[in-house]
Every structure is written in structure tokens, then in C-alpha cells.
Amino acid sequence: MKTNVKLFAVGLLICTLFTACSTRTSDSATPEQDNSVTAAAAATAVPTPSPEVIDEEALAEENEMLELAKYNAYVDLNNFMTGRLQDVLNDYFEEFGVESAPVIDKYFSATLLSITKYDDETINNAFDLMDKAPNFEKLDPQAKLLEPALQELTAVLGEAHEYYEIKGYVDDGFAGSKTMHSRILKANAAYEEASQVFFTYLGELADERTKVELQQYKDNNQLLKYSVMMFMLDAEKLAAEMDDQGVLADNILELDMVKFKAKYDVLTEDLKQLTTYSTDETRVTQEGFEAYSLESFVDQAKEVKIAAAEIIERVNKKQRVEEFYLKSSFFRETQKGTPEKFGKTLSLTIDRYNQMQ
């Protein structure tokens, strides 16, 4: 099964009647002309858009903003599912296993990760927009199939968190543990089936929007924004390369270094371009970045490059990951030179990117 990753929230550039997309005719007038141009002549030189044209352009802008809001709501849902929800699931199954009966240690004591109220808002926001215009032909129907599966899974995970937090197993001799484990397995199976198709369709839509946004950045000479996005895309390609090879911390020494290094070299060049443009104060201001936010993102981007370099170092040294560190996702993500650490670092970088939007 392919690993699902976080996506970028995007904000497409809209050039309308009400923005500085046109040039004022008075800028080219000579001093002699300036005093003699009458209102009638000005009206002739610059036709006033009809109310119908203004209404159509305003409607187009409104539709674009509605589409953007809905798309980004789906992106937020995706990022919750591939982020916090996956962490909660990993935490649960590492504690209790994936067999039909939960694994209960003799000296059991555990506190599970939980889903927050903010996460609930993310879920509800996406599903609230699901039936509203504009329509995403393939994605909206799949979101409808995903909703009951996701709602059931998050509900039972919430019950499990509460049960173990208040030590309910002391009261019922782990009877509730067995019941909830069965429900979680069933809910997770239904969620996995629905979510994989959702991820696929959203990924296709994300690719389409990314191509449009990249072209807009090039057309508008927004090379800093272009370099930021290219770094993110090429970092994801590096993660996908490891995923395609089926390489994890367990078998990191089986990594095809030729294929990995080719994509790593591209990422390294991306970082050089990003660093160059991010130190151009004029460009930073013109492209609307906040210096502190951009600096934070660039620092995090460097961590992605470092995480990739650590993988190369580990493979070159033929240094396996110790068995102890393979026991949990947390340890995998904190060990130098593992795909899991690279993935976690990339996930944090995507968060930084989305915070700049």
C-alpha cells in the first residue's frame, strides 16, 4: 500500500476588473492633454464596463473563491487523515495489535493519543461543503462514502481514549477493551477502503491545480513562490521514490541509491534556488511574503535536505536500524537516516508551507 502524504493548500491568483491588472490611461497623458481632456473624451478612451460585465466578473471571482475554499477544506481533511489521525491509529495498534483480540500486557498501563476539537472542526467543515457548489465530479461522491466511515472511526477512537484515560478497564476487567477493539478494527477497515479512493481523487485534483499555480507564478515572475513550490514537489518525489521501492527503516540498506541520488540532487538544486530568492529582500516584499514566516519555512526546508542526506550516509555506511527502534513509529521517525524521519520532516515542512498561504 502506498503511503499517503499531506497536500498543499493553494491560493490561485485572480486578476479582475477591481485589481491593478490594467494601466491607467492618465499615466501616458502629456501635461497639455491632461487639462484639455473632457469627461466625454475620457469615457470614449476608456469604455466603462456595463453592469452585466461587472456582474459576470464578480460572479466568476466569487465562484473561484468558493471553489478554492472547498478545495482547501478537502486538503485540510486530507492532512488530518494523513497526520493526526494516522498518529492516533499508529499509537493504538502499536499498543493493542491488529489481531481480532487486543494484546493486553500483564503490567498494562497506557495513555492513548486523542483527536482534538480542532480536528473535529476540520472534519465537519469539509463535509459541510461536500454538497455545496461548485461540484467536484469525482471527489464529492467519494467524500459522501468516506463520511460515515470516518465519523465512526473517530467516534470509537474517542471512546477508547476516554476509556483508557479514566482506567475503565479496572472497572470491567477489560471487557470494554475487547468490545472497542473489535469496533475499531471494523471501522478502520471501512475507513481504509473509502479513504484510499478519496486520496487518489484528491491527489489528481491537486496535481491539476498545482500545474495551474506553477504556470501563474512563472507568468507573473514570482520566482520565489515558484521555487518554494518546486522544492515541495521534488521533496514529495523523493518520498515517493522510497515508497515505490518499498523501503522503510526495516530494510533501508536495500535502497536503490542510483534512483534516490538522482532525485536528491534535484532537491539540492531546488534548495539553492530557494535560498537565493529568499535572500532577495525586494523580491520577498514584492511577492507578499512575511520575512519571518519565509525564514521559518526555509529553515524547515533545510531540515528536509538534511534528512535525505542522512539516508545517504546510513546506506553508504551500511548501518542498519537497531531492532529496538523499529518497535514504534515514534522511534522510527526520530532515527537519523530513515524514510520515516524524512516523511515526518516533510510533513512538518508542508505545515509550514500551508501556514504561509
Automatic annotation (TrEMBL):
Residues 26-46 are annotated as: Disordered. InterPro entries: DUF3829. Keywords: Signal. Residues 1-22 form the signal peptide. The keyword Signal applies. It holds the Pfam family DUF3829. Residues 36-46 have a biased composition (Low complexity). Residues 26-35 have a biased composition (Polar residues). PROSITE patterns: PROKAR_LIPOPROTEIN. This is DUF3829 domain-containing protein.
